[in-house]
Amino acid sequence: MEESDAGCSVCQEQYEEGRRPPRNLGCGHSVCTSCVEQIIIRGGRKCPECRCHIRATTATALPINYPLLRLARALATRGEVTPTPTPTPTENYNDAGECAAHLSRLTQRCMTCRVWVCGECVQVDHNVLPRGECRVVALRQALTLMKHTDVEPVITMCRDLQQLKQVLAGQAGHLENNKKTHEAVLTNLRAVITAEQDIIRDLEGRKKGIMDRVGEVEGWVAALRQAERDISAAATVRQLATAKLAAKESLTTTEARAKREKQRTQAVHIPQSLATPQEIRGLVRLSSNMMVVQEGEGERGRRWGRLSLQDSHLHLYALRNDTPPPPASTPVFSFSGVRGLVPRNSASAFLEVRWDGHQQGKVTIKTQGRTARARQFLQLCSGEAGASYLNTSFFEADRVGGEGAIIRGGDYENNDGTGGAALLEGITDAGDYLKEAAPGLVVGAKSTQRHRLAAFGVILSSWSGHKTDTAFGEVSSGLAILTAATHHSPLTDVVVEDCGLIIPL
């Protein structure tokens, strides 16, 4: 007997008990149970060989062809037929198992009820539209939908984890930046400590020198006391004359030495603190109260100014004549040393504006280049030349609400717009000062108006088609404060409460 006679004529698999027993179709032909199920469901219920109609509605309703099954078993026992192993559920992708209610293969899924169903389940319990509300799909489509449903939470979680990763990476970057900042502070502090140690050694050396001179002064005093005693002890005219002569020589010598020592002492300048850029950058993070001092001569004398750290920039406030000396514990820097940290080109200054008894905010202005007008403006903000914008009023506002609106101030002499003479020579028009009239542009007076060349104006609104030939700066922030100031009455109540220079750290 041929091996093919013991197998199904449709799938060519060998007959076997359990999963693939042969079923008699009623026309004399037999087909395995699995193929019968497919024929009933999709094959029009006809015999694949003679095309006779199959009356049964399920494969299990057809009788098993036991003689043919025994023959297949006998051939397998003699080794002529190798039995085909029954596929495990994981190896069979044609169905989801057997329906316990109808003993048919589960080849569909009701997505509404979330169960696998056979053909009879669909007819009996899972009616689709319009008869019912169930949604029944084929096995492969069901697998695709189920995969999508199962994988969506995974995708969502991966997306959430990616966002979490980005947040953590951002935090790590922020911490790294903080670390670098503190490392920079530590470097500055080490430089400060080294410099302080150098100053301590220098002061100790100076102190030793002074103590040596104290010893010398004590020697001079001892010599004079001895001369005094010799005069008092003289018993004769000759002894008195000799003692007086010796005392006169000692007194003359001592007076000359004392005069030289006083001059030397007055010339000695004892520094109150450090004055190098690196040291300032280190100390500025340690003290909220710092000062600068400008040594002067004559009536101006010594002048003081504040230092503060704001928005990661060092603010050098205008020098004042009326500021008392700070306590000994306050870090004090040389004004010239701090002033040297201001960028040479395109330096920035600030004006703190007040009206109605309250500070309204800060206007920062970046100067354009190193022109004479820009240098003069910086000098008046720092007060380094004596005059400053400190406590000056805004005195005029033109074209308010229209094109080319402007507010003017800076008359450090008369505070009404009639003064404000130039501090520097060589202030001209046009050239570097020629700019399009635009909001925030800082301008000055015409070069012919020497009596008010230090005054300034700030353009507040666009003025199409117009240029100015006296521009020397631009407002970086605070333009809205000046715009609001134009609506205050009287305008002269709007005052520059304080001003100064900005030093980037």
Give the SSE map:
Layout: E1 22-24, E2 30-32, H1 33-42, H2 66-77, E3 108-110, E4 115-117, H3 119-124, E5 136-138, H4 139-233, H5 237-267, H6 277-283, E6 290-294, E7 303-310, E8 313-317, E9 332-334, H7 335-339, E10 348-355, E11 358-367, H8 372-382, E12 394-398, E13 406-409, E14 435-436, E15 441-444, E16 456-459, E17 467-468, E18 471-477, H9 479-485, E19 495-504
Parallel strand pairs: 6-9
Antiparallel strand pairs: 1-2, 3-4, 3-5, 6-7, 7-8, 8-19, 10-11, 10-19, 11-18, 12-13, 13-16, 14-17, 15-16, 15-18
Helix pairs in contact: 4-5, 4-6
Protein name: RING-type domain-containing protein
Organism: Petrolisthes manimaculis
Family: Belongs to the TRIM/RBCC family.
Number of strands: 19
CATH fold type of the largest domain = Cyclophilin
The outline comes out as elongated
Order of helices and strands: EEHHEEHEHHHEEEEHEEHEEEEEEEHE
Radius of gyration: 52 Å
Unreliable spans: 80-92, 267-275
Mean pLDDT: 84
Give the helix proportion (percent range): 25-40%
Number of domains: 3
Work out the helix count: 9
Provide a brief overview of the structure:
The chain is of the alpha+beta class and 505 residues long. The protein contains nine helices and 19 strands. Helix 4 runs antiparallel to helix 5 and helix 4 crosses helix 6.
Describe this structure in words.
Keywords: Metal-binding, Zinc, Zinc-finger. InterPro entries: Cyclophilin-like_dom_sf, TRIM/RBCC, Znf_C3HC4_RING-type, Znf_RING, Znf_RING/FYVE/PHD, Znf_RING_CS. Belongs to the TRIM/RBCC family. This is RING-type domain-containing protein. GO terms for molecular function: zinc ion binding. Helix content is about 35%, strand content about 20%. The strands form 4 sheets. The chain has a 12-stranded mixed beta sheet. Helix 4 packs antiparallel against helix 5 (about 235-265) and helix 4 (about 140-235) crosses helix 6 (about 275-285). The protein is built from 9 helices and 19 strands. The protein starts with about 20 loop residues before the first strand and ends with a strand. It has helices spanning about 35-40, 65-75, 120-125, 140-235, 235-265, 275-285, 335-340, 370-380, 480-485; strands at about 20-25, 30, 110, 115, 135-140, 290-295, 305-310, 315, 330-335, 350-355, 360-365, 395-400, 405-410, 435, 440-445, 455-460, 465-470, 470-475, 495-505. Strand 6 and strand 7 form a beta hairpin. The chain is α+β, with helices and mostly antiparallel strands and about 500 residues long. The chain has 3 domains: about 5-75, 2-Layer Sandwich (Herpes Virus-1); about 145-265; about 340-505, Cyclophilin-like (Cyclophilin, Beta Barrel).
